[in-house]
Design goal:
Blueprint lengths: L1 H10 L7 E5 L5 E6 L3 E5 L9 E6 L2 E6 L3 E2 L8 E4 L4 E4 L8 E8 L5 E12 L5 E7 L5 E7 L6 E6 L2 E2 L5 E3 L6 E4 L5 E8 L4 E8 L6 H34 L4 H21 L1
Parallel strand pairs: 1-3, 2-10
Antiparallel strand pairs: 3-8, 4-5, 4-9, 5-6, 7-8, 9-10, 11-12, 12-16, 13-14, 13-17, 15-16, 17-18
Length: 272
């Protein structure tokens, strides 16, 4: 039942993921399929004029003609051969589908007339890109580009639509995922990530990094001034406290006592 459903989906052209095509009519062809996607291998022009043919995967027969029978295998319910155009289609690709595929054709006497091999590589497609930028010292900027998933990613950079040059790059090159831009560089920076299956890109507008050296100097000066003011205030308060401690506790009482003594002395003289 599953084989019938898979066959109907393939006839209707229904598949999931990325679909790739590869011409395998030349011996030694290298083909790429997307993990979870579909690959269409062009094995021959047409099978109508070929008496007999076989297709093996890693030396295991998976297809034989002229009855166009697909042998029971791991890809039996995910593959379909179209004799009229000589294409072999594999859906829902997995890592295990990668390997060597060999096509052999035979003449009417049963003798092999041709043998061709192709290598199929399965790669996860690249996906969403993230661009992260940060200012470094001396007004330089580091820009990093990363992709979620993707086998063997390759990177390329642009600035306002043109490839970054040595005059704009301080470190790295336009084929790495991290670059450092020189001081004067600004504009719309673009990063493109690709492999043999897919390609994605993203752009962001960046401005030149500000020179924070003057601000830092200003902050340092302000801190120094506040420290000096704090020291002056501290010693002023300390001096004021010491002066208060040196003043007599009750000067009026002392004066009153002296005056009273004088009065008493005068009265005693008159009485005599």
């Amino acid at each position: 039942m599953e084989a019938v459903v898979g066959l109907l989906l393939m006839l209707l052209g229904v598949s999931h993921g990325v679909e790739t095509y590869c011409d395998g009519r030349q011996d030694g062809a290298q083909c790429y399929g997307a993990l979870g996607g579909t690959v269409v291998l062009q094995l021959m022009d047409s099978a109508s004029e070929i008496t007999k043919y076989t297709l093996t995967f890693n030396k295991i027969r998976i297809l034989s003609g002229r009855m166009n029978n697909i042998s029971e295998s791991l890809i039996a319910n995910r593959s379909f051969f179209t004799p009229s155009n000589g294409t072999f289609r594999i859906n829902n690709l997995s890592r295990n589908d990668g390997g060597e595929y060999t096509l052999e054709t035979f003449d009417s006497r049963g003798q092999r007339s041709e043998q061709r091999t192709l290598q199929l590589f399965i790669q996860a497609p690249v996906s969403a890109i993230q661009l992260v930028s940060e200012c470094l010292s001396q007004r330089m900027m580091r820009v990093s580009c990363s992709s979620e998933g993707g086998d063997s990613p390759q990177y390329s950079w642009t600035l306002d639509g043109h490839t970054l040059t040595d005059a704009e790059l301080l470190c790295g090159n336009h084929e790495t995922n991290n670059i450092i831009l020189k001081q004067h560089v600004s504009g719309r920076v673009g990063c493109s990530v690709r492999n043999n299956i897919s390609r994605v890109s993203k752009q962001e507008t960046i401005s030149t990094c500000k020179d924070h050296s003057l601000l830092i100097c200003g902050l340092q000066f302000a801190v120094a001034v506040l420290a000096v003011i704090g020291i002056v205030v501290f010693f002023h308060l300390k001096k004021k406290k010491n002066m208060r401690a040196e003043v007599p506790a009750s000067p009026r009482a002392v004066e009153y006592s002296e005056n009273s003594f004088s009065v008493v002395e005068m009265r005693s003289t008159s009485d005599q």
